[in-house]
Description:
Elements: H1 4-8, H2 16-20, H3 25-38, E1 44-45, H4 57-68, H5 81-95, E2 104-107, H6 112-121, E3 129-134, H7 138-146, E4 150-155, H8 166-172, E5 177-183, H9 195-205, E6 212-216, E7 241-246, E8 259-262, H10 267-276, H11 283-294, H12 298-318, E9 334-335, H13 340-346, H14 351-362, E10 364-365, E11 367-368, E12 383-386, H15 391-406
Parallel strand pairs: 1-10, 3-4, 3-5, 5-6, 6-7
Antiparallel strand pairs: 2-8, 7-8, 9-12, 11-12
Helix pairs in contact: 4-11, 5-11, 6-7, 12-15
Amino acid sequence: MTHPRxxxxxxxxxxxxxxxxxxxxxxxxxxxxNALARAGRDIVSFCIGxxxxxxxxxxxxxxxxxxxxxxxxxxxxxxxxxxxxAAAADIGARRGLAIAPDDVVVGAGAKPFIAYTIASVTDxxxxxxxxxxxxxxxxxxxxxxxxxxxxxxLYLRESRDFAFDPAELEAKITDKTRLLILNxxxxxxxxxxxAADLDAxxxxxxxxxxxxxxxxxxxxxxxxxxxxxSLASRPGMLERTVICDGASKTWAMTGWRIxxxxxxxxxxxFTRWITNTDSCASQISQWAAVxxxxxxxxAADAMRASFLERRDLIxxxxxxxxxxxxxxxxxxxxxWPNVTEACRITGCADSEALRKRLLxxxxxxxxxxxxxxxxxxxxxxHIRFSYAASPQxxxxxxxxxxxxxxxxxx
Length: 410
């Protein structure tokens, strides 16, 4: 029974928006891993998507120099001129586009631009639709719902190397569609949209001028399957595409929180959103990012080469595990093996049950497909490995997975 005084001091109710707000399960599982580690358990973790390298030394020094120079205050909400110019030049050069510094807005990471874009192109509660990839970064669906729009999943299929069928996209566009979210290279599958895919998407969107595109290209420098391609470089697409990129993955700067988005029409709108939310990104981090983009690229190139070696290592090891089959991912640093048969062998009802057993019984931390949206119909069960882990950790972790599965074989 509630005491009268307890009832008197109970907090008021939350909004439906707050109660329905999703999360990013990588951080939830990371908390589980840390709790087990504190209890003395030996866990090999593949759950968090961040480089395991230090930020390059020249970038660290640029941050220190900014502190020493007294660059501690607010900046313009859109970012310092030097970073907007450097980001514009870099975005344009790698996509074959002319991007003006005024088209670029700097944020506290790339993630806020997901919400800013959805809020800028859809009206709350109007039944307007956002098409987004599934499986996909969980914040897409979370922010679509939080901003009062309608989520429309676009399935990435294993048979297409985790791209979607353009005909399925065409079938899902209605007069209520306002935004298409694309992510290439892709989290969680490592899939990449090829030139032919992008040509087909551009042709479809030419018939639907009311649809904006959010091009999440944060892994643009971590593609291994040929030249990186952006939808924004297709005729008529630059004006309606938000190109989003950032420093986190390329230069191992996740905690520095620097991302940027480019679109001429939406740049002033994004600037107002930042004024309303963060005021500006950290000035110290912005100066470090100028050095990251404009300075020597040796460290970034070495990290990319290491990720490519780790990709080949983990995929080879996974494909030797009974009941596991893994396609070769084209980019990012994720492997997305099909574990349907491994679930059957180990008596696990699904990938989430397998994930929990791997964590608690084998000391291996991964994420399950349900952490990235609903399962793709007919595609079976999958788990995600982030191979931004040392080769030694990869070998040990997959050896533990292998022992766990083989231990259940009759």
